[in-house]
Amino acid sequence: MAAAGTHDAYMEHIRNKLALVPERPGCYLMKNAAGEIIYVGKAKVLRNRVRSYFTGGHDAKTQRMISEIRDFEYVVTANEMEALILECNLIKEHHPRYNVLLRDDKSFPYLKITGDEHPRIEVTRRVVRDKGKYFGPYPNAFAAHETRKLLDRLYPLRKCRTMPDKACLYYHLGQCLAPCEFPVDPAVYEPMIAEITRFLKGGYGEIKKELQRKMEEAAAELAFERAREYRDQIIAIEKVMEKQSITLTDAGDRDIFGYAADKGWMCVQILYMRQGKIIQRHMSRFPHYGDPYDDFITFVTQYYSDNPAMPREVLLPGPPDGAATPTGPETGDIAAQLREWLGVKAIVPKRGAKRQLVAVACDNAKVALEEKFRLLERDRERSVEAAEELARRLGIPSARRIEAFDNSNIQGVHPVAAMVVFTDGKPDKKEYRKYNLRTVEGPDDYESMREVIRRRYERALKENGPLPDLIVVDGGRGQIAAARDVLENELGLDIPVCGLAKDDRHRTAELLAGDPPAPVPLPRDSREFYLLQRIQEEVHRFAVEFHRQKRARSMVASRLDAIPGVGEKTRKKLLSHFGSLKAIREASVEDFKALSIGEKLARRILQALNGEEEREGTGRDA
C-alpha cells in the first residue's frame, strides 16, 4: 500500500508538471526515483512529446522505461536543430541507459576552408588549431556535403586533396584554377575566400536569389532535371545554414549566464560549455529585493566566490535597454568591472553566436520562472488542504497559522533562537523573528525553549498580537513539555504544541503530539508530512543563519577589542562608519579623522589588523 501511495504521489507530481511544459522545441531528461537521468530526448514541441509518454500505448522497451520515470526536466531551444545538438551533448555527458542513439564519439561535421597556399573546401568532423577556417557544426551531414559541392561549383578553388601532375576535369569545367599545372598568385583566392566566408556566416541571400532565378529559367525551358538540381541546392543551403548556437567551434570552456525577474523573484540559468559544447546547466530561483540587474551581478560575483574553479570565459547579458549599470557610468562597463572583481574574462556579447548563447540562457530562465509562478498558483490550494489535513490528524480546529521554533548554539556559546511562521501552508517571512537568548547558560535546549516561548507570547499578549493555531517545536518530548509548561502555567494560554523528532541523518522522522506526547501516524508521501518537513527545514535554516551572523560579529568585535586603546565605544564607531574589518584594513590614516581618532591610534589599528592578515596568509601558504 505504501509503494502504491508513493507511486500515486509521483504521478500527481508529473501530471502537475505536464500542464506547464511549453509548446517550444527543446530537450527533455527523464529521471528515476534516485534522480538519475535514464533517458534524454528532443522534440519540436516539448509539450506534445513529453505528454505522449504518459498517454496511449507503447512498445515493451518504452513501457519499461516509462515505469521507472519519477520526474523530468526540459531545456528549451531556439529551434529543432539546436535541440538535436544539445541532445547529443547531453547523452554523451550522462550516458542514459535507455538511449541507444548518439552515444558514440561521433561528432557533427564542419565545413572548412583549408589554410594551404592553394586552399580547398572540405567537410571534416575534427576541429584542430591550424590555419583553416571552420564553419558549423551542421547536424545534417548530407546538407553539409551538398553545400560543399555547391561552393565547389561556384568558386574555382582546388578540389584535389593531393596535387595531381596536370590539370584535371575540374579545370576544363571551369571549377578549378589548376595550380598543379599553372602558377596562381595566392592573392587571387582572397576575394573568393571572403565571399565564401560571408556566405557561410549567413550572407547567402544573393546566392539563393541567383539559384532561384536559374531554377525558374530552367523550368521555363522545360529543363526539369536541371531545375530540380537547382531546387535541391536551395534546400541544402536552407538546411545547412539554419541558425543554431548550442556549439562553438573554438572548443573553449565557458559559462553562459542568463536571468529573468518578475513579481519579486529571479531565476538565473547557467549553461556550462566545455570543449565548445553545452553539457550541463544549473538553475537557481530565489526572491530578490533590489534592482534586478544589480542583484543578478551580485549573484554572479557570489557564485564565483563560492565556486573558485572558473572557465576561460564567462558570457553575461547586458543591462536592460536604458537602465544604468550597477557600477555607474564613471567606472566603465559591467564586464570590465567583473573582470577586475573575478579575474576572469567576462564578456557581454553584442552580436553573433555568443549573443545567441546568452539569449538561450535568458530564454530558459524566463521559462523556469514562469513555471514557478504557475506551480505556485496550482500549489496554493493544495497548501491550504495540507494545513487542514494536518489539523484533522492532530484533532485541532485549525492549523491555518503555524509558528515553529528552533534553537542554535555551539556548546552553549552564542545561544540564539528563531521563529518562523507558516500561514495557509506557506512561509510568511515578514512574521519571522530572531531571539538572542539572555538567561540560558551552557547548552540547555529545554531552558532555551522556555525562554523563547515566554518572550514570544508575553509580547503577543501585551501587544494584542496574533496567536497561532499550532506551535511546532524542533525536538521531542522534553521540548514539548518545556513549551507547554510556560504556555499553560505561566501565561494561561491553551495553544496546541507538537514536536518534530529527527532521525540519525537529521531528517524529519515523526510527529509527536498529545498529552503525554505520542507519535502521530503520517504517511511519508502525504502532503501534511511534506508541509512539516518544509517547516522544520525552514526554521532550522533561519536559526543557523542567525547564529552564524552573531558568531561572525562576535569575532569581529573580539579582534578590535584586542587592540590597545580600542574600547566598546570606539569599536562601535569603527564598525558603524566602515562596515567591516576589510574596509577598516583598507582605510588610510586620514579616514580615521572623521571619527575623531588620532593618528597614533589609527596607525596602531591598521598595523594590528594588517599584521594579523599577513600572519593568516602565511599560515595558509604554509
Question: How is this structure best described in words?
Answer:
The chain has 622 residues and is α+β, with helices and mostly antiparallel strands. The chain has five domains: 2-94, 3-Layer(aba) Sandwich (GIY-YIG endonuclease); 144-240, no CATH class; 254-369, Nucleotidyltransferase, domain 5; 395-520, Nucleotidyltransferase, domain 5, CATH 3.30.420.340; 562-621, 5' to 3' exonuclease, C-terminal subdomain (DNA polymerase, domain 1). Helix content is 46%, strand content 18%. It has 18 helices and 19 strands. The protein has helices at residues 2-18, 46-52, 60-68, 80-94, 141-154, 169-172, 189-200, 205-220, 224-240, 292-306, 334-342, 352-394, 445-462, 477-490, 527-561, 568-578, 581-585, 599-621, and strands at residues 26-31, 37-43, 71-76, 110-113, 121-124, 133-135, 254-262, 265-274, 277-287, 313-315, 345-347, 401-410, 413-423, 426-427, 433-436, 470-474, 497-502, 508-513, 518-520. The strands form four sheets. Strands 12, 13, 14, 15, 16, 17, 18 and 19 form an eight-stranded mixed sheet that branches. A hairpin with a 2-residue loop joins strand 12 and strand 13. Helix 8 runs antiparallel to helix 9, helix 12 packs across helix 15 and helix 13 (445-462) packs parallel to helix 14 (477-490). The protein is flat, with a radius of gyration of 33 Å. The two termini are 59 Å apart. The model is unreliable at 101-105, 322-332 and 613-622 (pLDDT under 50).
